[in-house]
Task: inverse folding
């Protein structure tokens, strides 16, 4: 498989926005998620209206059940972005060559290569989820933590800060609290979204900010896509 122009790890609100915008602009995009059933799926009430121009705005409707929002977004990612390739896989570490991020290794075995890598792994780095007295290695209900990826990033020298989010009971699901790690402020450039410790590596969403709102995360995903598009008129490898 030839390298993607961009590989996005994580298909929440931020990662899906990056992938959707770049694929519709002609870039060849790989989007990895641990669960296609949880892609673009809110786990708390949507309180902030989506920003104009986002995938979130395309699929949003006040009062829409979470799984219908997910279904609308998944259909658009599959049907309206022909350059986008969705994979259900768990990233366990970066692939690095000469100081450049060139893809990821997966727990399932296949390696995915790309010119640029975007980490949009939300609340999953080193995550521990607690429901009552029960604690498990998970980033949210039913989804395993990215422990192997977290250890790989630490081994490469990345620094992290602890963060925490709480989700109240929502549409029959129990409330929970998740403790996770985000990239330390000195590791991440807020304007460019770069992780400058390695070339061609970017991060967006809760793994950098600690979490804001669905609207903010989707807007940041679109902003990163626009930033990448602004670095050149053509996708990597397709210029004159």
Result:
């Amino acid at each position: 498989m030839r390298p993607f122009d961009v590989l996005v790890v994580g298909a929440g609100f931020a990662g899906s926005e990056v992938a959707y915008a770049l694929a519709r602009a002609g870039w060849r995009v790989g989007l990895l998620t641990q669960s296609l059933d949880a892609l673009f799926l809110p786990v708390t009430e949507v309180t902030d209206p989506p920003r104009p121009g986002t995938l979130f705005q395309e699929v949003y409707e006040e009062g829409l059940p979470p799984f219908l929002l997910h279904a609308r977004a998944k259909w658009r990612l599959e049907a309206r972005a022909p350059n986008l390739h969705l994979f259900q896989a768990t990233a366990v570490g970066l692939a690095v060559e000469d100081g450049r991020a060139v893809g990821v290794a997966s727990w399932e075995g296949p390696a995915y290569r790309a010119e640029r890598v975007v980490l949009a792994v939300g609340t999953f780095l080193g995550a521990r989820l607690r429901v009552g007295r029960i604690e498990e290695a998970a980033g949210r209900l039913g989804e395993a933590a990215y422990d192997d990826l977290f250890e790989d990033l630490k081994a490469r020298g990345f620094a992290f800060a602890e963060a925490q989010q709480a989700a109240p009971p929502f549409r029959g699901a129990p409330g929970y609290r998740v403790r996770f790690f985000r990239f330390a402020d000195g590791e991440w450039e807020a304007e460019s979204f770069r992780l400058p410790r390695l070339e061609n590596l970017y991060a967006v969403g809760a793994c950098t900010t600690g979490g804001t709102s669905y609207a903010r995360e989707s807007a940041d995903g679109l902003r990163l896509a626009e930033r990448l598009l602004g670095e050149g008129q053509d996708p990597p490898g397709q210029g004159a």
Summary: The two ends are 23 Å apart (CA to CA).
